[in-house]
Amino acid sequence: MKQKPIYLASDSKARRKLLRLFGLKFSVIPSRIKEDDFIEGMSFAQLVKRNARRKAEAVAARLKKGIVIAADTIVVQGKKVFGKPKDLASASKMLKYLSGKTQWIYSGLCVIDVEKKITKLAVEKTKIYMDHLQDKEIKGYFRCVNPLDKAGSFDIQGKGGFFIRRIDGCFYNVVGLPVRRLYRMLKEIGVRIFSFSIFCILSLVSGLFSGCSTEYNVVTGQQEVFYYSTEREIALGQAMAKEIEKQYKPVSDPLIQEKVASIGKQIATVSDRKDVNYEFKVLEENEVNAVALPGGYVYVFKGLVEKISNDDELAAVLAHEVGHIVARHSIKRLQAIMGYSLMRLLSIPLSENSEVLATSDAAFTTLLLGYSREDELLADQLGARYAKLAGYNPRGMISFLEKLQEDNRRKPPRPKNYLKTHPFTADRIRVVKQELGESLSFTDYINVEDRPYEKKAR
Ligand code: ZN
């Protein structure tokens, strides 16, 4: 089914950035609606919902189809409402007033399916505790940050984060868009957004990132900064694995599971990383794909297992995933997605509850989308090495990739398909051959089109 176009009825930079960060494809159509910040007899929750609905409706009226997303955020302290400041002087006054106090962020959300005429409304509340600010600090802050497009005159995801002692509730609500709530609303009206991560601060680990460490990477031979220690990586992987197995059923056939687990263990034994416990499982999903989580968890979809013709191919695929774990690619990717400012914020204890809680299946999907070309090629190189060391023919990777490519010549791969998330087939085959010390034939250097069904731009 083709995804309906998504429109964001807001030209807020923070909202655009967030949606992009979560991999959502959308266009911006500003609503030009003036928000109300007070209506007699209306609660704050009703007020932001009304504003969001008016924005969404204004944009929906200009469209024939698609999904419209609109939001409205206010900051409330006591009975006072703080929207966006109109100038620098009022921004400064606002921040001075909010300094040292607890306040509530209210976001109204509205999602409209234009064609089906379905409207969903919701509100998200987050409590934040702001430090006491000196005038000097406020001035200095405004020199770096433009407060005029920010409700309450500060940005929590940027330098405004320096002033926030603690928050209760969804972090992204404070940034400008409660993505978890939005994700649920979109799901309810039937929008499938698999590349949409739903991290919410309280469902994450407090202090998860405080174990910032530099480690020598055995594989790349370089000193690399990891914000996660191995311990934390494992904790995160465990939490994710638990969530995933709630949502995707493991295949019930013990023979398939045992086979994958036993070949996987052989690969893990010869790998360069032994400080994690590897686990290999097959999930009941028809997609052709496989994914490695932080901390040693490898999941293979049933659709992929069915495409495999022999143990060498299976070993090659598993060894590729082990390669990702050895090189810590999933951690790298999650780090990149969450950004430094979020990590910094997370390193401050948020509440007493510092337990590792579940992340989300959307984080899983983020990893399912694959890695950079560099990372994929490194995983291939390592995969070929480990498969060989474990006694398998590492050319299994080549035959497997060629088979998938042949299949896809006839039918374009679906978004979560292995070739779609692991492209650059020709390069990958070349890397495997190089690792095996095989001489390269002329055709290995020809730029073979990975996706022949896609028309080339001229
Ligand atoms: Zn990969």
Provide tags for this entry:
single chain; 458 residues; alpha/beta; 2 domains; three-stranded mixed beta sheet; 12 strands; disordered C terminus; binds zinc ion
Summary, kept brief:
With 458 residues, this protein is α/β, with parallel strands linked by helices. Helix content is 42%, strand content 16%.
Helix and strand arrangement:
Elements: E1 6-8, H1 13-21, E2 27-28, H2 44-60, E3 67-77, E4 80-82, H3 88-98, E5 102-113, E6 118-130, H4 135-144, E7 164-168, H5 171-175, H6 179-188, E8 213-217, E9 222-226, H7 230-247, H8 254-270, E10 279-283, E11 290-292, E12 297-301, H9 302-307, H10 311-326, H11 329-346, H12 361-368, H13 373-389, H14 396-410, H15 418-421, H16 425-435
Parallel strand pairs: 1-2, 1-3, 10-12
Antiparallel strand pairs: 3-4, 3-5, 5-6, 6-7, 8-9, 11-12
The structure holds zinc ion.
Zinc ion binds next to α10 and α13.
Written description of the protein model:
The chain is an alpha/beta fold and 458 residues long. It folds into 2 domains: 6-195, Maf protein, CATH 3.90.950.10; 217-450, no CATH class. The chain is 42% helix and 16% strand. The protein has helices at 13-21, 44-60, 88-98, 135-144, 171-175, 179-188, 230-247, 254-270, 302-307, 311-326, 329-346, 361-368, 373-389, 396-410, 418-421, 425-435, and strands spanning 6-8, 27-28, 67-77, 80-82, 102-113, 118-130, 164-168, 213-217, 222-226, 279-283, 290-292, 297-301. The strands form 3 sheets. Strands 1, 2, 3, 4, 5, 6 and 7 form a 7-stranded mixed sheet that branches. Strands 10-12-11 form a 3-stranded mixed sheet, with helices on both faces. β5 (102-113) and β6 form a beta hairpin. α3 packs across α4 and α10 (311-326) packs across α13 (373-389). The radius of gyration is 25 Å and the shape is elongated. The two termini are 28 Å apart. The structure holds zinc ion (ZN). The site of zinc ion has 7 residues, from α10 and α13.
